[in-house]
UniProtKB/TrEMBL annotation:
Database matches in PANTHER family: ARABINAN ENDO-1,5-ALPHA-L-ARABINOSIDASE, ARABINAN ENDO-1,5-ALPHA-L-ARABINOSIDASE A-RELATED
Name this protein carries in UniProt: Beta-xylosidase
Taxonomic superkingdom: Bacteria
GO molecular function: hydrolase activity, hydrolyzing O-glycosyl compounds
UniProt GO BP: carbohydrate metabolic process
InterPro entries with a match to the protein in the record: GH43_arabinanases, Glyco_hydro_43, Glyco_hydro_beta-prop_sf
Keywords: Glycosidase, Hydrolase
Pathway: Glycan metabolism; L-arabinan degradation
CDD domains: GH43_Bt1873-like
Marked site: Important for catalytic activity, responsible for pKa modulation of the active site Glu and correct orientation of both the proton donor and substrate: D120
Naturally occurring in which organism (per UniProt): Neobacillus niacini
C-alpha cells in the first residue's frame, strides 16, 4: 500500500485505512479503492471494497491516494483518477453514508482543471466556511511542479475562481530533480499536500518530494515529508517553506490524524522504494511552539 490515509471513527471505536492498492485493475478486473478496519492500528481486517466504479465512470485508471473527510453528516472521498485517452489526471469527489463506503460518484468529473495534469487533491475548510481543494499541478506537464488551491462550491460539486499558488517545487533548497524513465521526462515533483491547523493558529501543509543526498539529519536523500506554514492561518498565505524536513527516511505521502487514544499520528508509507515493499507506518507526532516533531 502507498499513500495510506487513516480515518478514525470514535462512534465505532474503529480506524478505517485507505490507500493506493488496486490502482489499475488486473486482467478483467476494474481498479477499485479498498478499505481495512482496525481497533488498535496494529491488527487489520480486510480488504473490503470501498469504491467500485459504476459503468461509464470517467476515471479508468490511476486510482491513487484516497482521503476521507466527514462533511455535513456524510463521508466524502477525495481521490485521484486518470481518464481515457486524451484526458488528464485529476481529483474527483465520491460520497458515502458510512466511512467504509460503499462510495458513489459525487462530482460529475474531476474538480481540478480539465486542462491540467493534477493529482493528490485534499480538502480544507477555512474559518470563514469556504471550502477548498489543495492539489498538485504535475511536474509531468509543468516541469516545475506546483501546489495550488481552488475554491469549492459548498455542495462540493465543482471548483471555481482563480487558483491560489502555494508553492513552486523548484524553489526548495533541499529538492532534487526527479526523473521517470517510463515517460522520458525530468522535473521537480510535488506530491501529497495535507492541511493541518496548528494550535497557535498557523496553517501547516505537509507535502512530499525527493531530497538531495546528505541534506537531512541522517543523509538519506530519499522520499521526504516537508512542511509549509501560513502564519496568517489562511490558504492565501503568505507561505513560508521550512528548510528542515519533517521526514527524510525513504518514506512519504503523509497525513496526520488524532488517534482514539488522543495522540497525534503521522500516517506514511515506508519504504518508498523498492516498489512493492511499501507498507503503512504510523508514528506519534508532537506539536511544539514553532514546529512539528516526530517522536523518537
Amino acid at each position: 500500500m502507498r499513500d495510506p490515509f487513516v480515518f478514525p471513527y470514535p462512534e465505532e471505536n474503529k480506524y478505517y485505512l485507505f490507500g493506493t492498492t488496486f490502482a489499475d485493475g488486473c486482467g478483467d478486473k476494474d481498479p477499485v479503492f479498498e478499505v481495512f478496519v482496525s481497533q488498535d492500528l496494529e491488527t487489520w481486517e480486510g480488504p473490503y471494497i470501498a469504491f467500485e466504479p459504476p459503468h461509464g465512470f470517467w476515471g479508468v485508471r490511476h486510482y491513487w491516494a484516497p482521503e476521507v473527510f466527514s462533511i455535513d453528516g456524510r463521508f466524502f472521498m477525495f481521490a485521484t483518477f486518470k481518464g481515457g485517452i486524451g484526458e488528464h489526471r485529476g481529483t474527483g469527489i465520491l460520497v458515502a453514508d458510512h466511512p467504509a463506503g460503499p462510495y458513489v460518484p459525487h462530482s460529475d468529473v474531476a474538480v481540478t482543471p480539465a486542462e491540467w495534469e493534477c493529482l493528490d487533491g485534499t480538502f480544507y475548510e477555512d474559518k470563514d466556511g469556504q471550502r477548498w481543494i489543495v492539489f498538485c499541478h504535475e511536474w509531468t506537464q509543468e516541469y516545475e511542479g506546483k501546489i495550488k488551491a481552488l475554491r469549492l462550491t459548498h455542495d462540493l460539486k465543482q471548483s471555481y475562481g482563480e487558483p491560489v499558488d502555494i508553492l513552486n517545487a523548484a524553489e526548495m533548497r533541499w529538492i532534487r530533480l526527479f526523473g521517470d524513465p517510463r515517460i522520458e521526462k525530468k522535473g521537480f515533483l510535488t506530491d501529497a499536500p495535507f492541511m493541518y491547523q496548528a494550535q497557535n493558529g498557523d496553517l501547516l501543509m505537509l507535502w512530499s518530494s525527493y531530497s538531495v543526498p546528505n541534506y537531512g539529519d541522517r543523509g538519506f536523500g530519499g522520499y521526504t515529508v516537508a512542511v509549509a506554514r501560513s502564519k496568517s492561518g489562511r490558504i492565501e498565505g503568505p507561505w513560508h517553506h521550512e528548510d528542515e524536513l519533517l521526514m527524510d527516511r525513504n518514506a512519504g505521502h503523509s497525513s496526520l490524524f488524532t488517534g482514539l487514544d488522543g495522540q497525534t499520528y503521522i500516517s506514511t508509507h515506508y519504504p518508498d522504494t523498492p516498489h512493492g515493499t511499501e507498507r503503512p507506518l504510523f508514528i506519534t507526532v508532537e506539536e511544539l511552539a514553532d514546529r512539528l516533531r516526530i517522536k523518537e
